[in-house]
Amino acid sequence: MTSALTPDQISRVKATAPVFAEHGATITKHFYRRMFANRPELRNLFNQTHQESGSQADVLARAVYAYAANIDNLGALGSAVGRITHKHASLNIRPEHYPIVGENLLASVVEVLGDAVDAATLEAWRAAYAQLAQIMIGAEAKLYDNAAWSGYRPFIVSRKVVESDEITSFYLTPADGAQAAGFEPGQYVTVKRYVGELGVDQPRQYSLSDAPHGKWLRISVKREAGNEAVPAGRLSTLLHEGVEEGSIVEVTAPMGDFRLDRTKSTPVVLISGGVGITPMMSMLSTLAAEGSTRRVAFVHACRNGKVHAFKQWLAQTLATNANVSRAVFYEEVGATDRQGVDYDFEGRIDFSRIAEQAVLPDADYYLCGPMAFMQAQRDALVALGVDPARIHSEVFGSGALA
Questions:
Q1: Is the pTM of the predicted complex or chain greater than 0.90?
Q2: Which PROSITE patterns match (predicted)?
């Protein structure tokens, strides 16, 4: 067991929090370069696209700053620790990885800041990192103990279905013939593929897009085409172009703390943008399969009908579940898009237009989509008087909702 930090160590770590606010990204970028140079095999555990863009370094810098600033009140970190531990468990991060990270992170602090960090402060940070590692390892051990399986497991792509111009579904069945695992609606799995141009395996998280039923695990993947500023998605391209029915993919057990609370009977508002529809499908499909009578508002936004996936599924769900309503917004209505059939409103989501349907005082709100989209929806709901504690979101990329 790691001993508790001394008051002096706590004071030193807290006092250096502003240093990470100012220099954190420089330190963490140096850290990743250093660690991968010393331990190149660890590149298999990290999203190299996020490394290239620098977004992963930014996320780590913010996390280190938050930890330092709240070293005397770790409860203030809220759900952030839970979100990180679920992601770590999904990526198969193990206790033996923590000393490697700690060694390279502390060395990077010294190499970047130099004489600005004295020996006593560095030792305080060493103790603080050991404390954090102990917390994370303990939390992740519980997740591993309760997981359906350990590490990566081979699955067969039993079906591949094109859902829209951008999204394709992959039905994954265990290669050993066993039943597919149960999971909580809203959770995700990590899929790993070898990327030849990088020379390493690459993991990506994908929300499960169907109800848990033991037959298969379904992921529905948007092909990230890329543009001048952002490269095309390596894994999504490989899945769309290189993975056919009968292919084997490596998958970790379902994880994630973004999940539908099935113990409640109060209304549910599911709000998605683009491929963010996937965990909402799992949630709604689960409620429908259970015969739930909870009031459900399904609010979805996308560009137009060509990229609107699962229209038929939603129509069938509405037809057989009188407790479910929908509000679909198309930002750009196409010539063949039919109002009242394919979509309901033109433009972006506007809660003032659907307040009676989707702004409910005792509801829980679930958000998934691009970060800017989720932030806009959260801000709009809070402005309308919704308790922030009732707003839940899934974040796969960089950052967190404010």
A1: yes
A2: FAD_FR, GLOBIN
